[in-house]
Here is the input.
Amino acid sequence: MGEQTRALTPCNLGGESSLEGVHLMKPIALSQNLFPRQFALILLASAIAVPALAQQGQPSAGPQSTSATMADDQSSSVAKPLPSASTPKEGFWGRVNPFARKKWVNNRVDPLKGELNELDEVNAKNGRDIQDVDRRSQAGIRQAQSAADAANQTATAAGNQAQNASNLARGASDRVDKLNSGLDQYHQANEVEVVFRGGQPILSAAARKQLDDFAANLTGRQGYILEIEGHSTQASVTGIQSSGRLAEAVKRYLVTQHEIPVYRLHTVALGNAPAEGSDETRSKTSNVHIRLMENSLAAQEASSPHDAPSLTGAERP
Here is the structure.
């Protein structure tokens, strides 16, 4: 080749033969220079075609997703921080790796799994907390309802007691009114007349028999009094004194022989005044007139059971 070149140089050629040699040398030199360039272009085209073919194998997205992807790539390329020493290398292909291995995928998925597990734990803890709050709320509601029911029962019992107390107070008031209205109202229940011979204060057997029968009817009675009136045939002061001794003799016999309380016996010396209701103007015999006066309340109590409380408050003899 070198010999031919040297034979074709202008110095060795002359005229038209030398120009023809120059034109023949240019295509040969161009073919020698184009061969390395074409080889480099083929290699570069192969390097670009391989990822393009890999991306074509993936499902195609619409124009909106393509533009959004391009915008995201631009923003990520602008705002992407400098790689630190702890950031793992992503390989030659970057984030778009059509030939990703399991290890590379696991390195990307494991952090997500950890975050999901943490979220599951947080959700489970929140569910337990909600159940605990609900359980305590239900317990508080039941306790409050029980307290309200107990308070309602207590209020009902208090209302019943107040009603009973009101009824008792009303009954007591009625009894007091009845007691006040009938406390001093007496009516005659029985009477007897004991005659003394010669005006002497000595009780005969017949007189004692009368007093015994009369006193027998007083057993179990309440709220009664005995009016003892002494009468004499004598007039003036002598008759009053004589009638007083006769009344005292009858009173003494009833107290000593029949244990009649003294506060139930009321004596009076009338002298020769006639007995109440008599048509005579003066007494013709020396006698003692005894009347049993009974209170109306005591009569009502006598018809009730023997152990019932007394309306008058007096004790039974």
